[in-house]
Amino acid sequence: MSTEITTAFAQKFASNVELKLQQMQSRLAGAVTTVNFSGVKQGQVIQQVGSVAAVKRTTRHADTPILNTPHDARWAFPEDYQWGDLIDREDAIKTLASFDSPYAQVATASLNRAKDVEIIAAMFSDTTKTGETGGTTTDWTTFVAANAGHKIASGSVGLTVGKLISAKKALRAAEVDENDMIFCAINAELEADLLTETQVVSLDYNTKPVLVDGKLSSFMGINFIHTEQLLTASSEYRCPVWAKSGVCLATWNDIQVEMARRADKSFALQVYASMSCGATRTQEKKVVEVLCA
C-alpha cells in the first residue's frame, strides 16, 4: 500500500465538553448580609447607633441627662470585574463541539469566585470606610492590637478545637446576638486538621454527627464553609470566624453574560461577562481572625 495513504486518515475530535475542576458558585455570599446599590457610585450599607451607659438619678426633679448617643455608618464601594474570550467559526467546525455554553459557565464561575475574594478581603481590610460620608478609615490591624481576643495566634499548629473555642469566646464576649449565625471559612487543609480532633468527629462529644455526606458541616454552633480562597500571612492561613451580620456584600451590577459576533474579529463569537460588587465589615467585633500554621 502506498506510504501516502496516511494523508487520507481522518481525525475525529470529541464533541463532549467538560469543564476542568474549579469552584463554580460563590460559597460565602449566603453567609453574609447582602444589599443592592444599583445606580449609585457608593453605598452606605448600614447606619449604626452605639451604646450608652445609663446614669443614676440621685435627686428629685433632676435635670434630664443628655448623653450624646454615638452614631456611625459603614460604606461599600464597587470593584469592577470582567471576563472575555473569542470563539472563531473555524474553531467550532474543527472541534465538532459547541463552546458557547461552557465559556459562559467558566465566565460565571470566575465572577462568583471574585465575590468570595471580595468578602474575605473585607473581613481583615485595613481600609474599611466609616463615618457620615465614608471619609474615615477603620483598619483591622489597629483593632486587633487593642482587642487581642479577636486575633488568635497560630501557635505553630493548624486549626484546633481550642482555637474555635477562643473565637467563639471573643464573639460571645462582644455580645454578638445568639441568633446571629456564626460561620468559619476553612480550606481542605484546615478541614483535615479538624477531622483529626476527637472532639469534632466523636459522637461522645456531639449530640448528632458533624459530618454530613462526608463534609464537615458544623461544630459548637459554628457553620463551616469550604473555600480555597483564604488569605495567608507569613506562611499562615488567616482563617475567619464571623457573625453573618458582621460582613456585607454590596452589588451594583450582578453577573451579566453577553455573546455577540465581532465584525472586527472576523465575526468571531465574543463571550463577555461583567460584575460590579464590593464588601465591607459592618462591625469589627463580629469578626475573629484565627491564624493557622
Explained architecture:
This protein is an alpha+beta fold and 293 residues long. 22% of the residues lie in helices and 33% in strands. The chain contains 6 helices and 17 strands. The longest helix is centred in the middle third of the chain and has 24 residues, at 100-123. It is flat. The model is unreliable at 1-6 (pLDDT under 50).
By CATH, the architecture is named Alpha-Beta Complex
CATH topology: phage-related protein like fold
Tally of DSSP β-strands: 17
Rg for CA atoms: 26 Å
Uncertain runs with pLDDT below 50, 5 residues or more?
1-6
Question: Which secondary-structure class do the elements indicate?
Answer: alpha+beta
What general outline do the C-alpha atoms trace?
flat
Q: Strand count, sense and closure of the main sheet?
A: 7 strands, mixed
Distance between the termini: 66 Å
Order of helices and strands: EEEEHHEEHEHEHHEEEEEEEEE
Helical element count?
A: 6
Q: Supply the CATH class.
A: Alpha Beta
Domains counted in the coordinates: how many? 1
| Share of residues in helices | 10-25%
